[in-house]
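Submission sheet (multi-component)
Chains listed below:
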Amino acid sequence: MTSNAVNTDSFLYEFPEASSLLGDLNANKVVSEAVERLVVKSWSLARNRLKALEELQQIQQECSVANWDGEDADPISSEAITFAAEFIARLPIDFPMPELTASSKGEVVLDWIENQTRMTTVYLKPSRQVVFAWVYDNESNHGSYMYAGRVDPRLTSTVLQLHP
Amino acid sequence: MPREIVGPERISRFLFSSGELTRAFVKPRAFDPGRYNEVSICCSEGLSEDEIWRIAQSVLQEKRIHNRNIRLHGRGDFLASEVLQATSQSPGGVPIGLRVEQDDMGWIRHGGIKNWPEDAELRAWVQQTIASKCNLFRYQHDTRQG
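Outcome: structure written.
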């Protein structure tokens, strides 16, 4: 398996029949293939997830060249896209789906925004480090961890509390 | 010589990417310090709406020389003093020391949010905190931008 290959143990874990097909895809095909599989196999359960993966596909198209933002941003890498697809697929099935963007450092950025004082942002680095920060009225905090196939419970509980 | 801004002066951050805003709010992504470790701003205190948008338009034209797809989507306004106070110390007690400066580099009223922390978590938190203090003004591109 190449370094760009999807971790089939964690990717689309709710849909084993789909995840078994993903192991040998290269990184550039991951998102479109995943979207296709989701449509065919599980679209009624994964509508929100599908939307997030489509946004990811759009990010891949729009942000894969240097200076895509006019401020010398790094291009989004296939590693970052692969990691983000895996991370999104790993979110609990009933989890609110985030809005997706890219950062100037080639990270995929996930935003859950209720309003100006209630938001959570996650930065998915190509190195598989997950950095997050949230603000809730007058409280705020931050954290990070190395992704190893699981979404940190601190993060899931924060998102579920702030974005029910 | 840059002028450090610490008082309750209005600062505007122009938003040139759709990923920097929602329908009603400015996203933390709008305050990504990027590879130069600085967020470009307009020191807009005392300017009229038209004057601010005119500056934004001229900045847009400069950016379009390098990337034709860039559009002006809006701006996020905040008070320098409010952001400096809110970001002065992290939730864990780490002093941040952000600075807001007007330097007129490239264009009059240009400035920067500078002295960002190195730590990725702290940067994320600072971006989040600044966004939470921002008011969004959308650009009426149908009539102004074409």
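Remark: Chain B touches chain A through 34 residues (CB under 8 Å).
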